[in-house]
Design a protein that fits this description.
This protein is an alpha+beta fold. Helices cover 27% and strands 30% of the residues.
């Protein structure tokens, strides 16, 4: 019985991304250009006025498109969630890598950056 409780505890402890470490899917996007930008995310399409910011929620990459045709569009890309990955594999190895599979399935092995500043870069 102690082995089963230990295995359950290891699974819960090691799936850190799903429990909360990997739950960072919000990015504060600041428009540092002189024109309006459109932001396409999982949660919808947002319009951000010049010199203002907005918090955008997305589990996938976010596309930024400027209304100014001379400015290039760009993507805000996900970054690896190193703490969740480390905790998934180090204690998770003893739980048969189940925590890593849980976090992979829940899309919590990576995260969005906390903030991003868009500036117009002419094409």
């Amino acid at each position: 019985m102690k082995k089963i409780i230990g295995l359950i505890f290891a699974c819960v402890l090691a799936s850190c991304g799903t429990i909360g470490i990997g739950n960072n899917h919000e990015t504060n996007i600041y428009n540092n250009s002189d024109s309006v930008i459109n932001v396409k995310a999982d949660s919808g399409v947002y319009k951000i006025e010049p010199k203002s910011s907005m918090i955008v929620t997305s589990k996938n990459n976010v596309e930024i498109i400027s209304k100014d045709k001379s400015c290039a569009s760009t993507f805000v890309k996900k970054i690896p969630n190193s703490l969740a990955i480390t905790l998934d594999w180090f204690p998770g190895f003893f739980a048969l890598c189940i925590p890593a599979v849980i976090d992979l399935y829940a899309n919590n092995l990576d995260k969005m950056p906390k903030s991003y500043s868009y500036s117009c870069i002419e094409k």
